Amino acid sequence: MSFEAVIGLEVHVQLLTASKMFCRCPNVFGAEPNTLICPVCLGYPGTLPVANRQAVDLATTLALALGCTVKEHSVFARKNYFYPDLPKGYQISQFDQPLAEGGSLALTGEDARIRIHRLHLEEDAGKLLHEVPGGRPLPGQSLVDFNRCGVPLVEIVSEPDLRSAEQAQDYLQTLHQVLLYTRTSDGNMEEGSLRCDANVSLRPRGEQRLGTKAEVKNLNSFRNVARAIQYEIQRQTRILEAGQVVAPETRSFEAGEGVTRTLRGKEEAHDYRYFPDPDLPPLQLTKERLATLVAQLPELPWTRRRRFAEQYGLSAIDARELTSARELAEYFESAVALLPGAAKAVANWIVNEVRRELKERRSEVREALPVERLVALVAMVERGELSSSAAKEVFTAIWTSGENPQAAVDRLGLRQVSDESQIQQWADSTVAAFPAQAEQYRSGKAQVLGFLVGQAMKRSSGSAQPAAVQAALQKSLGPLPS
Ligand code: ADP
Ligand code: MG
Ligand code: ZN
Q1: Of the candidates 29, 27, 28, 22, which has an alpha carbon nearest to the alpha carbon of residue 44?
Q2: Ion ligand 3 nearby residues (CB, 5 A)
Q3: Which segments in the chain show pLDDT lower than 70?
Q4: Could you read off the pLDDT of 432-471 as tens digits, one per residue?
Q5: Ligand 1 atom showing the smallest separation from residue 248 Cα
Q6: Does residue 8's CB lie within 6 angstroms of at least one atom of ligand 1?
Q7: Phi, psi angles (nearest 5°) of residue 430
């Protein structure tokens, strides 16, 4: 029997706020354990939480970017469970009245839209360490770092619309792009700013009803999301093919071995004894505040991609590459503004050379060659003053030297010679130096011309335009016999 995979993702995103969700502790990564804590985020009796306005704004912005319906009225609820990283004994989350519902995300290059079920605000828990920071093992013991307790999170729950590991990875990468465009999160997966639980089930092809799912917890890289889902699909296929049933359970992914393992049976909502948090008033968003956030939404990647293709006549691929990151798209637009007639050339330079250089130097877009100098260089190529290979040399040279391209071109002796008599001289001396090849050419072996062009270019130290050299050689060699 052939099965279809059905996948829904629950994604946790750390918001890029200055302070935590319900107290004034700083929201920063990497501090000494247990230095960013206070009586509120440790849940001391008698303390009271106050919702962080910036977190609400960022969560709302993200919800709007995903096309969700944002509720003017939502409710914080306590999700009760015991775990050593949760000092209060409950997590403040949202339950039956979340901040936002609905919405969708389009996958790359597909018409498929993955529907979003809901988006809500909550707080993070602390972190258990099973070895001493630095790597010394701690057999039989765990340490707890409460710094992350109370860090603002948004949870985004998709509908079970994904059908493969590749689609799930694509969804997550697209979501990651939206986080960076909206500047709502740093999206740093290594630091845990973006974590994902994957719900996976199978059903016979053609069946409408959903199969029993397993939930794989806490996947922390794009690659591991895909690997865990692939493994689950294989595991569940074997179970169903053997005529057995999939257990509804929560599983962990062991990245080293590439397998998932049973953690516990599936918990149900009623296990958590959700109830509205009596310490927090309902979250009210005024119409004015919503309207302000709507007005402040940046142009989103899919809109920008379409605009770039239309406005600048770019190929779909270039438009996609240039809008992959907001900073890169802005770099492109500020360059084109300086050289409006050459959008395609500028796009080419950025997609190929600038990105390669950034990658090699492991640099951010803000560290790239300033657009004024990039544009000056592209303009020289466009005017025929510089061959494109020479331009690449100049480009690498001026990235860090701070020179302007004209100065570098002169220093490196790369200015393209367009003086016809000079070029003719190189052509004539080449023909004189290679009489055998010249003879071959004249007797009809036209391919020899390529060799002679190469030799003449050498004489010019690469400063001549190959097309001009070819014309000069043809003049020097005389017409081909017909
Ligand atoms: P639970 O109550 O078990 O957490 P939810 O209905 O809240 O389940 O859904 C959690 C996530 O699991 C959502 O992303 C949803 O799309 C996905 N999901 C629900 N049922 C299935 C299923 N049968 N197979 C795969 N994913 C599912
Ligand atoms: Mg769940
Ligand atoms: Zn605190």
Answers
A1: 22
A2: 23, 25, 38, 40-41
A3: 1, 481-482
A4: 999 999 999 988 888 899 999 999 988 887 778 788 889 9
A5: 3
A6: yes
A7: -70, -45
